[in-house]
Amino acid sequence: MEPLLPSTGRALLHRVAAEQSSKRAPSLAAAVVRDGQIVWSGGRGRVAGVVPDADTQYRIGSITKTFVAALVMRLRDEGKVELNAPYDKYVPGTAFGDVTVAQLLAHASGITAESPGLWWERTPGVEWPEMAERVGQAELKHRPGRRFHYSNLGYGALGELVSRLRGVSWLDAVRTELLQPLGMTRTTPMPEKPHAEGLAVHPWADVLLPEPAHDAVSMAPAGQLWSTLTDLARWARFVGGDTGGVLRPDTVAEMREPAVVEDGEQWTGGYGLGFQLARNRNRKLAGHTGSMPGFLATVWTHAESGTAAIAMTNTTTGVDVPSLCADLIDILATMEPPIPVEWTPLPEADPELLALTGTWYWGPAPRALRLLHDGWISLTPITGGGGRASRFRPTGRDTWIGLDGYYAGETLHVVRRPDGAVSHLDLATFIFSREPYEAAAEIPGGVDPNGWQAL
């Protein structure tokens, strides 16, 4: 990949420098990823007397949750977890056993935001049996599924689920199933040099206070991990769909779909199955923010353009790391927009599939069926005014499954006449014919025998 223009690098550095200076961050490290590679990274401030770089560890807080969610989705894909099953099926004996695994993943369970007891982020943790004993009816704040209510406790519970089903700690599962296969050697549960120290900055004076760092034990799945720009760049690629084989790309795409939103119909923030979501400048970003005493971090990925930004700082509050990452993505997209992928013809085309392309009619409304790669097809409206558009992946000789849009999960069948010729398409009971309301296509309800008439 060609290096960035000097003007782009300067603009990115200026944005990071302005954030570090104006928000009084002891140190700040950031990177931008494009097409799987770090194309720019920079640091400001000092860690142990030197400028932080791509190998400097920071605590990443709730970005840890995305690793736990990936493990749960691996279990789902293996058939060992049902997302709509109650938590009690896998970890019995809790006060919130009737909430589903999916509700826990998406922070829609309604259980309390923080674990009962002392402020868990600043005190030594306890094992799961003791934590579960502390949780009673008072910790059930909302009807399950009613609304988004962020819950650190919920991810402590998911970590226990992973441990029960894998027979090892959630952390060992993260290491063996995610970190090692992806080559993320500097993501650890406790800091390893070189690493930043967690600090608080006095609100009215330029002085610092060290923050404590403990093993959160049962709450560790909510925010224990430390990492670097280099490792999180690899994780950003994972979030964007470059999974390295540890999870199916379509499963990661499912995790990026909004399950709940924070702010109503015109949502700017929401949550998928383990990924935090945000809208910024008409981009849908996926990833997660992180906050622990002494640290702030964010990974934002724009999957459509293969671009991501990571930023980490060692201050308890004050630095708007999510907005910084969104700005870094915008700077790169504005100053050096990605070059479109070169168009090339398909290497081969099945004549039967080629014969299906062209215009089909849903009633009087025309749709275009196009042949894509690997036998995929798309069905999209031809005229203006909107309509239902979807892509479909083949599941058999004459069947496809919808991947997105209105027909996601629905099956498209090619219906043939006795002689093998194509009669029509059947999609979720809707009939698509080669002519508007073609009588030979067996349109439900029949077609007036007088045909089309002038008034």
UniProtKB/TrEMBL annotation:
Q: Which UniProt keywords apply?
A: Hydrolase
Keyword hit for Hydrolase: yes
Q: Where are the transmembrane segments?
A: none
Give this protein's Gene Ontology molecular function annotations. Answer: hydrolase activity
Tell me if Transmembrane helix is a UniProt keyword of this record.
no
Identify the domain of life: Bacteria
Where do the Beta-lactamase-related domain residues begin and end? 19-324
* Enzyme superclass (EC): hydrolase
EC number(s) on file: 3.-.-.-
Concerning InterPro entries, the annotation shows: AmpC-like, Beta-lactam-related, Beta-lactam/transpept-like, DUF7586
Q: Name one Pfam family in it.
A: DUF7586
Q: Which residues does the UniProt record annotate as the domain DUF7586?
A: 350-434
Q: What is this protein called?
A: Serine hydrolase domain-containing protein
Recorded source organism is Kutzneria chonburiensis
Lineage, opening ranks: Bacteria, Bacillati, Actinomycetota, Actinomycetes, Pseudonocardiales
